[in-house]
Design a protein that fits this description.
The complex is a heterodimer of chains A (135) and B (342).
Chain A (H helix, E strand, L loop, with lengths): L6 H12 L23 E3 L2 E9 L2 E4 L3 E2 L2 E9 L8 E2 L4 E2 L8 E8 L2 E6 L11 E6 L1
Parallel strand pairs in A: 2-5, 4-10
Antiparallel strand pairs in A: 1-2, 2-3, 5-8, 6-7, 6-9, 9-10
Chain B lengths: L10 H6 L2 E2 L4 E2 L2 E2 L8 E3 L18 E16 L2 E8 L8 E4 L3 E8 L10 E2 L19 E7 L4 E6 L5 H6 L3 E7 L9 E10 L9 E2 L4 H6 L4 E4 L12 E4 L3 E10 L4 E6 L3 E5 L9 E4 L1 E4 L3 E8 L4 E7 L10 E7 L13
Parallel strand pairs in B: 4-5, 5-8, 6-14, 7-12, 13-17, 16-24
Antiparallel strand pairs in B: 1-4, 2-3, 5-6, 8-10, 9-11, 11-12, 13-15, 17-22, 18-21, 18-23, 19-20, 19-22, 23-24
The chains are: A mainly beta (135), B mainly beta (342).
């Protein structure tokens, strides 16, 4: 897909800056403490949108909390090898995304917690596993 | 199978014979140290073959390995996506001597999906080389190290997630010979144990993905020598003749299980436990313990013809694949071994 440069995208990018506390477990820049409650995820035509970036080895989400309902994850691989993005409880996910590539995943989420992983062998264990809270 | 001295006729030995007397200029750049040493391209042989003994002064040895992820046979009708050094499990046997400077090149095939690297247990330096060799697909890394300690050492991939890389087959052995070399024997072979964790139960046909949960439980479906069930049996059995002395370089890639290495019908005349050289060998050993990430050198002389089975004497693993064979031919030795009619 291509990035849609709308006002909503700008909101999402702001959310990305404000919600750094939801970064990957092992790698990536240090999380910025949020000055206030993280902003809610942006609302788009395909429901709520959450931007996800992947790297060796972790995820960063634009929103610390994901709203219940129809959610589209816009996933970008900022790593150097391929990764995928799987919502473990649903068994739904993207195909492997090459370095620099993007993909979208739209799912229906209920309130609770979900685990998102990269299920390429060893990547989850290396840090690409994140618990996402849905409210 | 050829005797060790006839390995000089093998294709790998051709590379070994390429002693480049360019004095310190390997791969087009000056050596950082060891100027004045001969530069040698290492002979690398796939298991169970072993490169010829090192009988020379210390040199600069160029070792080039490629990491490649390949689909191969784990057992009859069972396929697996192996992650390998050089396309085999275990990776090629590397043979150098104490005092050598090793210039190591790691290429990661462009077809790879993973970052790969190497940790040589023979290295004195942080990570055994792994921080210097984290290599993306299609890239190459180079580092050099000096072989300070003789012994038989494991090498393995050390890229995150390290246990997964090892579990998928990324290990091998390197021998650092002591000054003057090892005593001459008639035959040398390379055997390495490892276990595999597949989604499907043992024997389930088809391509079997890696099962992380079973690896954490340390409950493999397969325990094998040299990367697959039957790698050392039937027409692939090791060969020797009565009266010959056989030396086995035995490693354990793990990732989890200790090996109780035993050859049924033989007694190890000599064992260098834990691959340790410089220590006195143990003599008259029935079974030697080889931990994951460890190795042993065992030697025995064949007294009677027949088939000798290599096993992990944690014996239920025999049914998981941990069995190989050595076939010995030659005259019977009734004074040593014979049946008697009751």
């Amino acid at each position: 897909m291509t990035v849609r440069w709308t006002g909503l995208t700008a909101v999402v990018l702001l959310a990305l800056v404000g919600a750094g506390a939801c970064g990957g477990r092992q790698a990536g820049p240090p999380a910025q403490p949020a000055a206030s409650q993280p902003p809610p995820a942006a609302v788009g035509e395909e429901g709520r949108e959450v931007e996800v970036t992947m790297h060796e080895f972790g995820f960063r989400l634009s929103s610390a909390e994901v709203p219940a309902g129809r959610v589209t994850f816009e996933v970008r691989n900022e790593g150097t090898i391929e990764h995928n993005f799987i919502v473990a409880e649903l068994g739904q996910g993207t195909s492997p995304i090459p370095p620099g590539g993007k993909a979208e995943l739209t799912v229906d989420l209920q309130p609770g917690t979900y685990t998102v992983v990269c299920d390429i062998p060893g990547h989850k264990e290396a840090g690409m596993s994140l618990t996402v809270t849905v409210r | 199978m050829r005797r060790w001295w006839s390995h000089a006729r093998g294709p790998g030995a051709v590379a070994a014979a390429l002693v480049l007397l360019s004095l310190g200029f390997a791969s087009g750049r000056p050596a950082a140290s060891g100027a004045g040493q001969a530069v040698i391209q290492a002979s690398l042989l796939a298991p169970p073959r072993v490169p010829p003994p090192v009988r020379r002064d210390p040199a600069r040895v160029v070792v080039s390995l490629q990491t490649v992820e390949i689909r191969g046979q784990l057992a009859d009708g069972v396929e697996y996506e192996f992650w390998t050094f050089g396309g085999t499990v275990p990776g090629p046997f590397i043979r150098v001597r104490v005092g050598d400077t090793v210039e190591f090149h790691l290429k990661n095939a462009s077809s790879s999906r993973q970052i790969h690297s190497i940790d040589f247990h023979a290295v004195n330096g942080p990570g055994g080389g792994s921080p210097l060799t984290q290599t993306r697909p299609g890239q190459e890394s180079v580092f050099q190290w000096k072989a300070l300690n003789p012994g038989l050492y494991v090498y393995h991939c050390a890229s995150p997630h390290i246990p997964t890389h090892i579990a998928n087959g990324m290990y091998g052995l390197i021998l650092v010979e002591p000054a003057g070399g090892l005593p001459r024997v008639d035959r040398e072979y390379y055997v390495m144990q490892g276990e595999f964790y597949t989604k499907g139960r043992r024997g389930e046909k088809g391509l079997q993905p890696y099962d992380s949960a079973k690896a954490y439980l340390e409950q493999p479906e397969y325990v094998v020598f040299n990367g697959r069930v039957g790698a050392l049996t039937d027409t692939s059995a090791l060969q020797a003749k009565v009266g010959e002395t056989v030396r086995l370089f035995v490693g354990n890639g793990g990732p989890n299980l200790m090996s109780a290495f035993h050859v049924i019908g033989e007694i190890f005349d000599l064992v260098y436990p834990e691959g340790a050289m410089g220590s006195s060998p143990n003599r008259n050993v029935q079974t030697t313990l080889i931990p994951p990430g460890g190795a042993a050198v065992v030697e025995f002389t064949i007294n009677a013809p027949g088939t000798y089975l290599l096993v992990d004497h944690s014996i239920f693993r025999l049914d998981k694949g941990a069995v190989g064979a050595l076939t010995a031919t030659g005259p019977a030795a009734p004074e040593v071994y014979q049946g008697i009619k009751p």
